[in-house]
Amino acid sequence: MIDRVLVPMDDSELSERALRYALDVHEGAQITVLHVVGEPSRMMGAATGIALADNSEETIRELAADVLDRAREIADEYDVTVDGEIEVGPPARRILDRAESFDAIVMGTHGGSLADRLLVGNVAQTVFRRSPVPVTVVR
Questions:
Q1: How far, CA to CA in Å, does 130 sit from each of 17, 36, 61, 86?
Q2: Which domains does the chain have, with CATH numbers?
């Protein structure tokens, strides 16, 4: 039986679909939404603001707030409460670091901007190949 489900989310429609799928299929399971804020890089991007911020922890919470708020709105439609967590670093690595604490992972096929997908690689593919728990990829 699947009691604990990890749903990695960014601000994409596909990650919202993944959350809805998890709520539909794993009714009664504890759902944890994980938003990974990428590390600053030479290629710029939203995470660059973390490196430039006076209070990086506050900046990280601000970057994740919209995603976690949206996840809670979706969960409210199902009359369910979800846990929201934030990590910083390479998304696939952070998701895999947490995987063993869950019975399953449900995630979108891809997310973020085209530049993120080209530069970071296919997070869903990496998680799918390396996860120690079952992974459902939603599109």
A1: 22, 18, 28, 21
A2: 4-138 (3.40.50.620)
